[in-house]
Amino acid sequence: MSLFDHVEFDQHEHVSYVCDPDSGLRAIIAIHNTHLGPAMGGTRYYPYQNDADALTDVLRLSRGMTYKSALARLPLGGGKSVIIGDPKTQKTPAQMRAFGRFLERLGGLYIAAEDSGTSVADMKIVREVTAHVSGCDDKQTLEGHTKSGDPSPATAYGCFLGIQAAVKHCLQRDDLNGLTVGIQGLGNVGYRLAEMLAEAGAHLVVTDINTDAVQRAIQELDAKAVGLDDIYRQPMDIFAPCALGATVNPHSLEQLQASIIAGSANNQLDTAETGRLVHARGLCYAPDYVINAGGIIDVCYEKQGSYNTDTVNQHIEGIYDTLMALFERSDRENIATSDLADTMARERLQSVS
Questions:
Q1: How far apart are CA 120 and CA 336, in angstroms?
Q2: Residue 8: which of 53, 67, 41 has the closest Cα?
Q3: In whole angstroms, what is the distance from residue 119 CA to residue 329 CA?
Q4: How many other CB atoms sit within 10 Å of the CB of residue 5?
Q5: 302, 139 contact by CB (below 8 A)
Q6: Domain ranges across the chain
Q7: Residue 285, CB-side half-sphere exposure with 13 Å CA sphere
Q8: Same fold for the pair 3-62+76-136 and 152-351
Q9: Secondary structure of the chain in the HEC alphabet?
Q10: Which residue in 24, 20, 82, 78 sits closest to 51, CA to CA?
Q11: Residue 142's pLDDT is what?
Q12: What's the pLDDT score for residue 149?
């Protein structure tokens, strides 16, 4: 299949296939749109079954980054990169440097950051050979402590605020006390989100392939653990997908007990039609690239050299208002929030000349 005929191709400006035989690097870099500024997005390291799956993922993710930055009102375009392989057994410093050299060739059109399978340490290696990377610098918290360049806390904070917005709109509540949240995935973002929810008084039902993370949630957060495929059937108010994408699909919706879907994962819906099915069933869905924008906000300020924790947090807190406006417009116009978010992002792109 031609790239231009690919179902997920959306007038992408640039797609690079990257190969470095010496290090074993195989990667794809996709730049979707640079109308608002240079493309920025994470670098995912994942053992895709084949190159076609990797291409599909990077095309979807890069388009999502365009819309994410647009709705977060950032001076950024959308891009993403994927490295094909198992990060636990195949990732090496030589690969990350090779990846950085390819970034340098793009001359700043795309700025990388960490993502699933990569870390702050990896991005620091990339920075040895190119300046076109973010999420590396230590930052000060409001309490005066030092935190790493990891944008996960910012992503989790934005998701927590997004859940509050969904609860306010859907359940007419200003608090989360006593509500049950099913969290699918306890990685860097998912676990931090779980901590915030537990502190707010929510009851947690969790699942993850990482049994250590699950046990930690049981011990520290009094969470209930269930199997990977059992999470959908649990009685809960909110389903929070915080792992990989496409877990919201017709099959999972048939089992889902929640009235709200709000989590940190990218590409939560398997297809656009599923978003319409969510709407038709009366569920409140917080579109993924709206609710999980905290991380890109964080690394954008870092890259600009204007990082101030209070300013960054205020920007992230705008996610609540954006989602409330989206939910209210969805009700007025009877349009799925997933479709409406795309529309609002395109309106933003068109409004900036």
A1: 36
A2: 53
A3: 37
A4: 7
A5: yes
A6: 3-62+76-136, 152-351
A7: 31
A8: yes
A9: CCHHHCCCCCCCCEEEEEEECCCCEEEEEEEEECCCCCEEEEEEEECCCCHHHHHHHHHHHHHHHHHHHHHCCCCCEEEEEEEECCCCCCCCHHHHHHHHHHHHHCCCCEEEEECCCCCHHHHHHHCCCCCCECCCCCEECCCCCEECCCCHHHHHHHHHHHHHHHHHHHHCCCCCCCCEEEEECCCHHHHHHHHHHHHCCCEEEEECCCHHHHHHHHHHHCCEECCCCCHHHCCCCEEEECCCCCCECHHHHHHCCCCEECCCCCCCECCHHHHHHHHHCCCEECCHHHHCCHHHHHHHHHHHCCCCHHHHHHHHHHHHHHHHHHHHHHHHHCCCHHHHHHHHHHHHHHHCC
A10: 82
A11: 52
A12: 81
Please give the CATH number for the structural domain made up of 3-62+76-136: 3.40.50.10860
Distance CA 340, CA 318 (A): 18
150 and 114 in contact (C-beta within 8 Å)? yes
**Residue 137 has what pLDDT?**
85
Residue 36 to residue 88: CA distance in whole angstroms = 36
Question: Is the CB of residue 325 less than 8 Å from the CB of residue 310?
Answer: no
Question: Is residue 58 a contact partner of residue 12, using CB atoms and an 8 Å limit?
Answer: no
Q: Rounded distance, CA 205 to CA 207, Å? A: 7
Output the pLDDT for position 146. 66
pLDDT of residue 244: 83
State the pairing for strand pair 39-46/14-20: unpaired
Rounded Cα distance, 89 and 87, in Å = 6
- Candidates 40, 60, 39; CA nearest to 48 is 60
For the domain made up of 152-351, give the CATH fold.
Answer: Rossmann fold (3.40.50)
Structure tokens at 114: 């960490």
**Using alpha carbons only, what angle is made at residue 21 by residues 20 and 25, rounded to the nearest 5 degrees?**
50
Query: How far apart, in whole angstroms, are the C-alpha atoms of residue 241 and residue 27?
Result: 26
**CB distance 301 to 307 below 8 Å:** yes
Please identify every stretch of the chain with a pLDDT value under 50, giving residue numbers as ranges: none
Report the catalytic residues: 80
What pLDDT does 37 receive?
Answer: 97
